[in-house]
Amino acid sequence: MSNAHFNRGPAYGLSAEVKNKLAQKYDPQRERELRAWIEGTTGRRIGDSFMDGLKDGVILCELINKLQPGSVQKVNEPIQNWHKLENIGNFLRAITRYGVKPHDIFEANDLFENTNHTQVQSTLIALASQAKTKGNNVGLGVKYAEKQQRRFHPEKLREGRNIIGLQMGTNKFASQQGMTAYGTRRHLYDPKLGTDQPLDQATISLQMGTNKGASQAGMTAPGTKRQIFEPALGMEHCDTLTIGLQMGSNKGASQQGMTVYGLPRQVYDPKYCGGPELLGEDGLDGLYNSQ
């Protein structure tokens, strides 16, 4: 089985776009740092092409065996492609046991088929960080924070149930200072006038809303008579009981001619009856009654 069987052809469309974006994230400086660390740890030269030198998995298996002896029991000679894939798989399983997080580990085809060299580089950097955390002299990567496990006495844990953390909100510094009883008078002041703020806590600012200037002057009891005037006629507004026509008016309306409920109301036509003055007191035609 030849290497050409596993090498994919050129990508097109969306696959090519994704591959180009992944290639742009590859860091040549990191590659030089990884090369120096791996060659210094294993004592073997990788070669001119960094990824091609790691593709058979032999150097990778030797690297993890140097960091943690016995991680890979058998390193296959890279005679056939399945030997190389098996070496890469053994390396990935070994670094997982070593402590590298699963989401930081590349897949075998990412290296063997040259599909994602950026992820391979990220995995090697994560391995260097894990080695530094375990005390190895590594010049790249970051040291992970060590787990600090604390044990509290059961009584302390029970006391903590009665405490509300600040993440849940707090009423710290909240008080009812300055609050008055219901119905108590509260003074008003306007800061814009430059007046000093009153010393008492019963005064509120206009920014808080005010009913300053509001009164019940001019209001009458329900059913009280209210006079009507017309401002256009020049009438004077004599009292507070008078309202303008702009507010609506029943001027000229009266109950004259209204009869008691149930009494008949006579209808006449001026053309024939000669006017309402000819009607008698009972509402009947006088001429007709005289006959």
What's a quick, concise take on this entry?
The chain is mainly α and 291 residues long.
Any chance you could write out the topology, listing elements then pairs?
Layout: H1 13-24, H2 28-42, H3 50-54, H4 58-67, H5 81-98, H6 108-112, H7 117-133, H8 154-160, E1 188-189, E2 204-205, E3 228-229, E4 243-244, H9 270-273, H10 286-290
Parallel strand pairs: 1-2, 3-4
How do the strands line up in the largest sheet? 1-2
Shape: elongated
User: What is the averaged pLDDT score?
Assistant: 75
* Major sheet size, sense and barrel closure: 2 strands, parallel
The secondary structure category is mainly alpha
State the helical fraction.
25-40%
Query: In sequence order, what are the helices and strands, one letter per element?
Result: HHHHHHHHEEEEHH
Number of strands: 4
- What proportion strand? under 5%
Task: Spell out the key features of this protein.
two-stranded parallel ribbon, disordered C terminus, single chain, mainly alpha, disordered N terminus, 291 residues
Can you put this structure into words, describing what you see?
- The chain has 10 helices and 4 strands; from the N terminus they run H-H-H-H-H-H-H-H-E-E-E-E-H-H.
- The N terminus and C terminus are likely disordered.
- The chain starts with 12 loop residues before the first helix and ends with a helix.
- The chain has a two-stranded parallel ribbon with strand order 1-2.
- It is elongated and about 135 Å long.
- With 291 residues, it is an all-alpha fold.
